[in-house]
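Hi there, hope your week has been kind to you so far. Would you mind checking whether the tokens look sensible for this chain? I owe you a coffee for this, so here goes:
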Amino acid sequence: MKRSKLLLMIGIMVTLVFSLAACGDKASSDKDEDGNVTLDFWVFGATNYDELAKEYEKEHPGIKIKVKTSENADHHNSLFTALSAGSGAPDLAMVEIDQFDRFKEAKDRFVNLYDLGAEKIQDKYLDWKWKIGESMEGDFLFGLPTDIGPKAMFYRTDLFEEAGLPTEPDEVQKLIQSKEDLIKVGEQIKEKTGKPLLDSMEMAYRAVIDGAEESFYDQDGNLLVEKDGNAVKKAYDLAVELNEHGLVGEYDMWTPEWGNAVNNGDFAIEMGAAWLKGWMLDNAPDASGKFRIATLPKEFAGNWGGSYITIPKETKHDDEAYEFAKWLVSPDNQLKSFKSDAGLFPSSPEVYEMDEFKKTKDEFFGGQSTSKYFAEAAQDISFIYKGDKYTPTQDEVLNALKNVQQGADPDKEWAAAVKRMKDLNNK
């Protein structure tokens, strides 16, 4: 008995020693040899977050932030792979709004930001934007709101003038207040200039889908595309109708041809989001002074894009990561992100009341103060549930529309797309 007790005590002591050693290893791995905490931060697209990270480091000695920027698809695929593997995820990661429901399926791989006190800052952000960052039960917050993508009408004043149409924003807004108005204006522009109204079938489709409160799925995950009055079919039908009127170009977004078309004025209107301004500044120099912005007809108002800052569960620095994320998306720093070349549009209404925001003038848009148009649109947006397969499901609709533009029968293409969507969602 004495020997057994002795062996048991030795076993306990050995276990304790190894446990303490392991804790010591973890503690030492939390900081580098200089005693700094390093936060890995994965972002995508054009942001000013690397500059803000440097500013944060100066204000918070002992914190280092490594910003890794990737293209949208690569970023989200790498993050999903790391989370699935349970290793290799960063301390913080941006997640784009269309991708968000996909990542919400991996709830156990993220830190609940409500556990870190996020409810204290909730009132600083648009309600619909905050709600999208929550679980459906509302008790788990996946990410803090960054930018949003309220939409407006980007239009070419030279083409409107050539077509004998008004060019001042308020006049254009009065001119185009419905789908019928849009078609009428488009036909006049096509007749007088030979240019299409819109750049692509996708943009025509997005006129409806980006403002829909319910699109592909309900919150139980049921596919709704065959339901009477469904917004996806409405969006599809609008794109088909505009194409039948000859008002849609074949300039797919982000292609070199599309970039040249924006630069050269090869179409008249882009129903774009606020972030498009930043792209234009860097990529369409010949268009400077030729675009203006007006409010879209209410039936076409909506949100396209925007992101959240999440904290993967793997981090050893959840408190430090949260403090940085909270600082990064604060109203003051959202103003900085808005004023930067990236032009990220704020999700905090506090910014809309700041003098610097209201007095901002865009030389690219002829000195117009465009911020008020997007701010008004931002506050008319509603919560929308997208679903974990939103992107590949929507791609089936976009593929069908491309086929229609090449001469395929719209009804047959819709039926084929519905079948593909069902097959995709039954996997």
Observations:
- Residues 9 and 15 are 10 Å apart (CA to CA).
